[in-house]
Fold this protein.
Amino acid sequence: TQLLEQSPQFLSIQEGENLTVYCNSSSVFSSLQWYRQEPGEGPVLLVTVVTGGEVKKLKRLTFQFGDARKDSSLHITAAQPGDTGLYLCAGGASGSARQLTFGSGTQLTVLP
Amino acid sequence: DAGVIQSPRHEVTEMGQEVTLRCKPISGHDYLFWYRQTMMRGLELLIYFNNNVPIDDSGMPEDRFSAKMPNASFSTLKIQPSEPRDSAVYFCASSGASGTFRTDTQYFGPGTRLTVL
């Protein structure tokens, strides 16, 4: 069974601060996706990375896939209250058609 | 497009009762997934279908759970009999055949919050 561990589990910061969320596994993934989930809603895809070492930027969010494709990080610069939510990483297993393994999630709260 | 539609949004039932959750995927999508989310276990894949055929049901917790997809626009997840430990938010998601599997986007519905008393 492939597992994805996220850290920290909870994070509460002030508006304007920077933060990094980590997603780690001992398994290799063919792709790594990051989702954000708001209360009462389903997760929404933010980004997909597929190449080891790949870096993608989405406005103030920077996503990186580890060189060995076992880990990933999400960095938010100058966090805003609108960034508040549950951030989930999800790994696509090699050889599997469409299955994703989700991490345990990081609950981010950005205080104004 | 209306997105993935799930019903009901909330369900409260008593232990031992049958519960049926419903999902309408995005039109044209050929993959449908059922997930369960709890604080303790996070988001877990229960079963997924491709072209209405179940591909992997290894995540279904036990025989009390069953899922069907009679056509491309409808799926159900049934729990019979329900137990308090089944209380969770159940999500349905769908994805399309476009792109490679490594870059597929799963579109989630709003979920059904199930409470079993």
In short: The mean pLDDT of chain B is 92. DSSP finds no helices and eleven strands in chain B. The two ends of chain B are 36 Å apart (CA to CA). The interface with chain A takes residues 4, 31, 33, 42-45, 48, 50, 55-56, 91, 93, 95, 101-111 of chain B (CB under 8 Å).
